[in-house]
Amino acid sequence: MDFRQLGRSGLKVPELCFGAGTFGAGDAFFKAWGETTEEEARGLIDICMEAGVNFFDTADIYSGGRSEEMLGRAVAHLKREDILISTKATFRSGAGPNDVGSSRYHLVQSLERSLKRLGTDYVDVYHLHAFDATTPVEETLNTLDKMVREGKVRYIAASNFSGWQLMKSLSVSERYGWSRYVGHQVYYSLIGRDYEWELMPLAADQGVGALVWSPLGWGRLTGKIRRGQPLPEGSRLKNQSVVEAGPQPNEEILYRVVDALDAVAEETGKTVPQIALNWLLRRPTVSTLILGARNEAQLRANLASTGWALTEAQVAVLDAASRVDLAYPYWHQVQFRERNPFPVPQG
After folding, report:
1. CA distance 34 to 37
2. Could you give the CA distance from residue 218 to residue 314 in angstroms, rounded to a whole number?
3. Catalytic residue positions, numbered
4. Do 66 and 272 touch, CB atoms closer than 8 A?
5. Each residue of 246-286: pLDDT tens digit?
6. Rounded CA gap, 87 and 301, in Å?
7. Nearest-angstrom CA–CA distance, 231 and 316
8. What pLDDT, in 10s, does the model give residues 210-225?
9. pTM of the model
């Protein structure tokens, strides 16, 4: 397993990260992701460690905190210094008026609860799960900086920010000499390339590593979805709340991409998801891909997406199949590449 720098930081992370969203199964939404048992959780963790994947991601809202609890128990037999743990805060975690957002009150409360559930005294990467426009950025970043100085958090990262929100935050951190976001957890896939328009150039310029969530397009690039065929049994996409909460790709683009993946799979002998993941690993600013798995077979198959590379011709085929019309001002900017070079070709 290769390791990469997490943005402009000294932290090295494996190019694959295990997401514990299937741990806990706290409600119908998370049950659609998977219902991993305690025994299965520890087995999946051990498979990851054998493969060199020592980075594990969760969040305080996953199954109402049960994901953190199960992850904490699943890694308890490992040396804490041998693993990296990432969790998140900001979304509502209670019924009270201060049980949501990125205020000092809520973040301090959320971190303490997360540490207790995880059974650790520090988190390696602490994400804001979303931007909170109701709290001053200075209050949020000063709180996060204090957590770093206290040793309860090693590095801070954002998630699901827009370009201006991330840039404003980085500017405030620089102004006061506070800890800055070194990572940005983002949605990015062959059927969702919006990240490339604004956030990727920003990340390249500012040294912010991408931690990619749902790299298989919210379960659509598993190799089991085909034009004109019903959804496979067990697909999370059979749950309407899951569908509505995730990305909404154009169906024609989805099937165009699947056709291209099938063609490349025939050439390489690799599976559709392995090719989709390997394509992402070739993209600028990507530090790690966050993978979920319902079982051992699925996990081992996803781990096999590394250690090899698509050819330039195969990448070009996938690029062409997944390309969409750019929004303004990007369609205008790409006409003047000598002044606005994008990290990857556009248009």
Report:
1. 10
2. 23
3. 62
4. no
5. 888 889 999 999 999 999 999 999 999 999 999 999 999 99
6. 25
7. 29
8. 999 999 999 999 988 8
9. 0.95
Domains in the chain and their CATH numbers? 3-336 (3.20.20.100)
Dihedral sign, Cα of residue 37, residue 306, residue 55, residue 106: negative
> What span, in angstroms and rounded, lies between the C-alpha atoms of 214 and 221?
10
Q: Measured between alpha carbons, how far is residue 46 from residues 52, 277, 296 in Å?
A: 10, 22, 10
Residues 142-154 as b/e (b if ≥16 CB within 10 A, e otherwise) read bbbbbbbeeebbb
Report CA 161 to chain centroid distance, whole Å.
13
Write down the residue that tokens 């998370």 correspond to. 30
Residue 78 has pLDDT above 70, yes or no: yes
* CB contact at 8 A, 204 and 285: yes
Q: Which helix (H) or strand (E) holds 148?
A: helix 137-150
Q: What is the pLDDT of residue 244?
A: 82
Exposed, middle or buried: residue 131 (CB in 10 Å: 0-12, 13-18, 19+)?
Answer: buried
Cis peptide before 232 (omega within 30 of 0): no
